[in-house]
Automatic annotation (TrEMBL):
Residue intervals passing through the bilayer: 12-32
Keywords for this protein: Membrane, Transmembrane, Transmembrane helix
Name of the protein: PepSY domain-containing protein
Amino acid sequence: MNDSNGSLSPWMIPLTLGASGIAGFFAGKLVGNRRRSANTILKMITNDFKREGTVEGSWIDHQPIPYRQFAVRTLVYRGGIRRFEDDQLVSYEFLADASTGTLLKLKRIDN
């Protein structure tokens, strides 16, 4: 006699959930490690600076470099921005996380 009259095998649900979990894990690894482009990050930082005044110029290295602060290691873009503050042109250099665009370091450069 055949016992498969439309009922599910007791292993079908755990196998399906396990396969879905593994597929989700690998999809997350593929999508989660993407870097933002240097131009996108520069545009984000420039827009932040524009909220406080006029930006006169900006630049960014398109090749990310390794950066370590304490136990955290990441890739960063190095760049700079110039704007007027109190009628004087002021320059800044920055390091921005290549994955998120988060500003990790900002340093005012004395001219």
